[in-house]
Amino acid sequence: MSEMPAPTRSGYVGEASTRLYFETHGDLETGGPPVLLIHGAFGSGNQFAEALPYLTTDHTVILVDLQGHGRTADRLEPFTYQRFADDCAAILVHLGVTSCAVVGFSMGGGTALQLAFRHPALVERLVVVSAPFSDKGWHTDVMANFRNTGSHQAPEVMDSFIYHDHAALAPKPEEFPALLDKLGGLLGGYAYDWSAEVAALDVPVLVAVG
Fold it and tell me: Looking at the DSSP assignment, which residues form a beta bridge with residue 60?
């Protein structure tokens, strides 16, 4: 992974029993139009390090670490795309952003969709990368991996980059087994179909699947 450039601004927003980490690259008052980037499972805003130099030439970039990821501590409730979306909205409101482009990758793509459904005024353009609008949209082998995700995998994952990247930023790295369980519940045990909400979207949408 590329080295993460220093943010222009960073901090935390208190929301629903946790402190959400955010950072910006570029000045929201004098820079280009804002774009919110939402990372995938096991990731953080650092997941976009390689993309930042390309995006910051024309945009002010906002990064967020979702619940239980990166620098944001977990809270005593399951992971849901709806809660993730509300957390992202809280950060945008805190920053005074009234509307922006939103890019979500994988789990972040589901979060980006929910942000557009639940807080439509905040989303002026939407990019969904590698994320379906129904749990039936995942490939069978991918869904099988999701359903197998849980704390029983912790011993074999502790020597992987997934754990080391998480532990380098997490307020409580010892809670990693709980992260596995919560991601298994969200990605492998959560049935959803947002086709009606997608059909009702009234913003430009780019879907990238590869």
Answer: 34
SS (H, E, C) 122-150: HEEEEEEECCCCEHHHCCHHHHHHHHHCC
For the chain, what is the total number of helices (H) and then of strands (E)?
8, 7
Cα angle 50-13-61, degrees, rounded to a multiple of 5? 25
CA 43, CA 89: separation in Å to the nearest integer?
19
C-alpha span between 83 and 16 (Å, rounded)? 9
Strand arrangement of the beta sheet that strand 123-129 belongs to: 9-15, 18-25, 60-65, 34-38, 100-105, 123-129, 205-208
Question: How many Å separate Cα 138 from the centre of its chain?
Answer: 18
Q: For position 1, what pLDDT does the model report?
A: 57
Q: What is the C-alpha to C-alpha distance for residues 202 and 116, in angstroms, rounded to an integer?
A: 9
pLDDT tens column, 12-43: 999 989 999 999 999 999 999 999 999 999 99
Using alpha carbons, select from 20, 55, 64 the residue that is nearest to residue 34. Answer: 55
pLDDT of residue 2: 75
Each residue's pLDDT tens digit, 159-191: 999 999 999 999 999 999 999 999 999 999 889
pTM (2 d.p.): 0.97
DSSP-assigned letter for residue 45? G
| Amino acid identity for residue 57 in this structure | T
> How many beta carbons lie within 10 A of that of residue 18, not counting itself?
19
Scanning the structure block, which residue is given the tokens 């220093």? 6
Residue pair 46/70 in contact (Cβ under 8 Å)? The answer is yes
